[in-house]
Amino acid sequence: IMQFGEKEVQYYQLLDESLGMALDAINPEEDLLMVVSDHGFQGAMRKFYVQEYLYRKGFLKMENEKARKRAELVGYVRTLMRDLKLQKIARRAFRQLRRKGVLALEREHHPARLPQLDWTRTHACIPSSSGALASYADIFFDETVTEDQIDALLTDLRTIRDPENGQLLVTEAHREDAYGTGPFAPKERHLIVQAGENTTLPVELARTSLWERRGTNGRGVSSGVHHPDGVLYLYGAGVKRGVKIAPTHIYDVVPTILSRMQLPLHNELAGKYIEEAFEQPVRTHMQVASDSVVIKRLKKLASNTL
Q1: What pLDDT, on the 0 to 100 scale, is given for residue 218?
Q2: Which of 244, 235, 248, 250 has its CA nearest to residue 274?
């Protein structure tokens, strides 16, 4: 962390102090504190060029042959630099220059750089690189792509394995309803794919191979900020002390909160109550009980304001 400056260290210190303030403010006999992350932090050593995969499948076309040749040239130069071990030297040089203040640290967001695509012949693409380091890809489809074609694409993606370790490329896949349904549903059709824990999904085009290992001579270099496994800590009312529970899912957080508040769960709500984390099970019902935690708190609040 120190190589990025003092601001990042101060940020983590602020988070730690905020957690301490939350612990001081709650009553562990009545309140429940949950510390949750939707993913973990761990680098990956493998790359799968998913945008190039879509190109080879015929879903997207580049603007012209020159644009494709330029992209291929860039890819060739990058591969050559990696094979000659020049990338590592360049990274070290840039780190040293940043430490000495010769080069400023990156402090601004860069706009997305879309490839030079022929949009009249492109029917599916990944318009953002934001998911690359997080090991997911959000594929957009136009109206000409049929549902059968999307199903066939997903089936093919599910069969792809890393030639180095045999690991499946796709661990989870979702459609556009993951973003919302009814009035909240997106207008575009999506296919969101999540890669395994050791793979990132860059969107650069014209790579010689769809699979690539970071580093040279078999020595991997970690990259990325995402790991599928996050953290879940529970503290307070009814929580078992010092217990390590089985792996759960981010979907289980909301049902657990609502259940502890003795509120009804909607039938379409994904996830379940994390029962093994608590001393006593909660009552299951479809109506709010008169003695629920929410009602008690509202009555207490009303009495304090009168």
Answers
A1: 46
A2: 248
Task: Report the amino acid identity of residue 291.
Answer: D
Judged by DSSP in three states, 106 sits in coil
> Which residues are bridge partners to 301 per DSSP?
none
- Tell me the C-alpha distance between 290 and 284, whole Å: 14
Rounded Cα distance between 152 and 52, Å, is 17
By CB neighbour count within 10 A (0-12 exposed, 13-18 middle, 19+ buried), where does 211 fall? middle
| Residue carrying the six token digits 């089936």 | 155
Residue 169, number of CB atoms within 10 A of its CB: 22
Q: pLDDT band for position 216 (50/70/90)?
A: very low
Q: What is the DSSP letter of 244?
A: P
Separation between Cα atoms, residue 49 and residue 204, nearest integer Å:
7
CA 275 to chain centre: 26
Task: Give 130-169 pLDDT, tens digit per residue.
Answer: 888 788 999 999 999 999 999 999 999 999 999 999 999 9
- Two tokens, residue 115: 């490839």
For 48, the token pair is 């799968």
pLDDT-above-70 percentage for the chain: 75
Which letter, b or e, does each residue of 20-44 get, where b requires 16 or more Cβ atoms within 10 Å of its Cβ? eeeeeeeeeeeebbbeeeebeeebb
User: Cα angle at 146 between 142 and 152, to 5 degrees?
Assistant: 110
Residue 34 CA neighbour count, 13 Å, CB half = 18
CA distances from 282 to 20, 90, 252 (A): 28, 58, 15
Using DSSP, state whether 33 is helix, strand or coil.
Answer: strand
Count, residues in the chain: 306
Instruction: Assess contact for 203 and 35: CB atoms under 8 A.
Output: no
Cα–Cα–Cα angle for 163, 115, 111, rounded to 5 degrees: 110
